[in-house]
Amino acid sequence: MIGRPRVHHAVTGSTNERAKELAATGAPHGTLVTADEQSAGRGRQGRTWVAPRRSAVLMSLVLREYDALLPLRAAVAAREGLACGANMMHEPSIKWPNDLWVDGRKLGGILVEGRPQEGWAVLGMGLNVWTESEDFPPDLREIATSVVMVEGGAPDVEVVLGELLPYLDIWLRAKPAEVLEAWRAWDALKGRAISWDGGSGTAAGIDDSGALLVDTTDGRVALQAGEVHLRLE
């Protein structure tokens, strides 16, 4: 079952690093690593993840059953966990490939790491729950948000985690077609002008592999996660 066994740290460098250590030594599928605070939290493409103590869901899962759609599965599960489980009135959307957005600001992110040749992956997730604007670094205050900032109140972080895990259990096992349909229903970029180093165009959804489709003046292109830094125009 997703979330068992669970290893919790008051403070750790990175839940993903702890989960990778456990995975390498044989931890079973579904092992959960959580923390009240991280001293070296990371996001995609080397970004730093900052969250005051007990203000965010900071978690990583050891997975021994996974596929190429894992980042999309996780994004759908997180969105459902917040919208349905945590009863958010302002429902999050998903910014490709797997950031959670509310009102154009980032509420949470996902980082997948692993060693397929050894049969495991680690799914890391950070969700801002009680983080206030002044808690974010100055360069993030205009682009980051939290449940309490959006809703005016928020459940306890542990409650949000408890609501999230059942949705992860569901969506990690869902059929690929169901995952793609759900992800597309909450696509934050479709129809918006975007640019990246090397091109620009209009986001046109995702293909069945999860690649971002972009209509450019030279035709439609497919972007793979990790290749680009997107900018909204």
Provide structural commentary.
The protein is of the alpha+beta class and 233 residues long. The protein has two domains: 6-185, BirA Bifunctional Protein, domain 2 (2-Layer Sandwich); 193-232, SH3 type barrels (Roll). It has helices at 15-24, 70-85, 147-151, 157-173, 176-185; strands spanning 6-12, 32-38, 56-63, 93-95, 99-102, 105-115, 120-128, 193-196, 199-206, 212-216, 219-223, 231-232. It has a seven-stranded mixed sheet with strand order 1-2-3-7-6-5-4, sandwiched between helices. The protein has a five-stranded antiparallel sheet with strand order 11-10-9-8-12, with no helix packed on it. Helix 2 (70-85) crosses helix 4 (157-173) and helix 2 (70-85) packs across helix 5. 45% of the residues are buried.
Shape: globular
Q: What structural class do helix, strand and pairing data support? A: alpha+beta
Secondary-structure element sequence? EHEEHEEEEHHHEEEEE
Question: Count of DSSP helices?
Answer: 5
- Name the strands of the widest sheet in spatial order: 1-2-3-7-6-5-4
Strand content: 25-35%
| Tally of strands | 12
CATH topology of the largest domain: BirA Bifunctional Protein, domain 2
The biggest beta sheet reads: 7 strands, mixed
**Any idea what the CATH architecture of the largest domain is?**
2-Layer Sandwich
